[in-house]
Every structure is written in structure tokens, then in C-alpha cells.
Design brief:
This protein is globular. The protein has helices at 2-10, 23-33, 49-58, 76-85, 97-108, 116-129, 139-143, 147-157, 162-169, 173-186, 192-201; strands at residues 37-40, 43-44, 47-48, 66-71, 89-92, 113-114. By secondary structure, it is an alpha/beta fold. It has two domains: 2-128, Rossmann fold (3-Layer(aba) Sandwich); 130-201, Arc Repressor Mutant, subunit A (Orthogonal Bundle), CATH 1.10.10.
Length: 205
């Protein structure tokens, strides 16, 4: 029933190439169809979403899909378990259809996406796993960014969507997108995923 609901919510925004209800079936379908983005639940009848990712990696199947967790669970262990396995995003099943489509599109191009309240778990994990002597951002790197770009950078790194950032900063979605592109270009980063690691490593969150 839930998969039917997701398919309906996506409408024509994405092509659903396959569905699975356990780990083995998911691995087989992903290897066969090689989708751009895989929506994974945390808990499956025969294992977990993390098992799907690690099985594909261990088999050396060369699948280049990106993974977005979509789960009712917002438990820190579940969130971090999937992120550590290789998921680039994690959103809860309370997400609105338009926000889910936006999350899929961002993950498809390599960006990290997290429901705002879940981002704290992920960022705290980055901090706790970062050595005490970790690099801090050189002043010249930050000097490249305007005050507004620094605000956008921090929210992007925390997993906020363009829509959420626009609402937070009282600017348009288009302006957020322009600032985000400028931030990545100036910092010589290629995606939100890299930005999140960069910001956490330099204690900018």
C-alpha cells in the first residue's frame, strides 16, 4: 500500500523502474535496472536498507545508483546506519509529495538531502568521528563568500532544501539556487554531499 502511495505521489516526475519487498529482490532489481536513485526503507523483512547497499558494493556489481532513505523511523541509529552504509539522503514518510520529488532530484545529481530535524544526527556523527586535530577552514576560503552565501552554505550543509532555506532567509527559491551554485563554485566543491563533509570537517556548523 505504501509503495502504491509513493508511485502515485511521484506521478510523472520520475519513472519507477522496479519495486521490491526484501533485500534479495531489491539487489536483483537494482543490478538489472540500474536506476538513478533507489528509495530504501530502513527495515525490510529479510534485513535492512543498509544491507541492500553493502550487498551491492560487496558483489562489485558496478551499480552507480544513489540511495535515498524513506522511512517512518527517525531514530538516530537508523539514520546513521544508512548514511554510513552509503545513503546520500534520509527523509521520513511524513514528507510532502513535492518535497520527496525535490529530494529525489537533488540526490540524483549527487547532493545530500536530509529532513532538517534529522540533519543534526548526521552532523553530530561527523563531528564525533573527526579527529581533534581536524582542519579548520582557512580564512581566505570563507572570505570568498558573502555574508548571505555563508548563511546559505550552513543551511545547505545541514540538509535543508532550497524551499526551506528560502523560507528561513526570506528570499526566493531562485535566489537560493543562485547562492548555492556560487558557494560550491567558490569553495571548489561539486555537490552538497561534499559541502556537508567540508563544513563538518572545518567545524562550521
Amino acid at each position: 500500500m505504501f509503495r502504491d502511495g509513493v508511485r502515485s505521489a511521484l506521478g510523472n516526475a520520475a519513472e519507477v523502474v522496479g519495486e521490491a519487498d526484501d533485500v534479495d529482490a531489491a539487489v536483483e532489481i537494482i543490478e538489472t535496472t540500474r536506476p538513478d536513485v533507489v528509495l530504501l526503507d530502513v527495515h525490510l523483512p529479510s534485513g535492512s536498507g543498509a544491507d541492500v547497499i553493502t550487498t551491492l558494493r560487496d558483489r562489485g556489481s558496478g551499480v552507480a545508483s544513489r540511495y535515498l532513505a524513506l522511512s517512518v523511523s527517525d531514530a538516530p541509529d537508523d539514520v546513521l546506519g544508512l548514511v554510513r552504509a552509503g545513503a546520500q539522503g534520509y527523509v521520513t514518510k511524513r514528507i510532502e509529495p513535492s518535497e520527496l520529488i525535490d529530494a529525489i532530484e537533488h540526490v540524483a545529481v549527487g547532493n545530500a538531502v536530509f529532513s532538517p530535524r534529522l540533519a543534526a544526527f548526521v552532523l553530530e556523527a561527523f563531528r564525533s568521528s573527526t579527529p581533534d586535530g581536524a582542519d579548520r577552514a582557512p580564512p581566505e576560503d570563507l572570505d570568498l563568500l558573502s555574508a548571505r552565501e555563508k548563511e546559505v552554505m550552513r543551511l545547505l550543509a545541514r540538509g535543508f532544501s532550497y524551499k526551506d532555506i528560502a523560507a528561513e532567509l526570506f528570499i526566493s527559491d531562485r535566489t537560493v539556487e543562485s547562492h548555492a551554485s556560487s558557494v560550491l563554485r567558490k569553495l571548489q566543491l561539486s555537490s552538497r554531499h561534499e559541502l556537508t563533509h567540508w563544513a563538518a570537517r572545518h567545524h562550521l556548523l
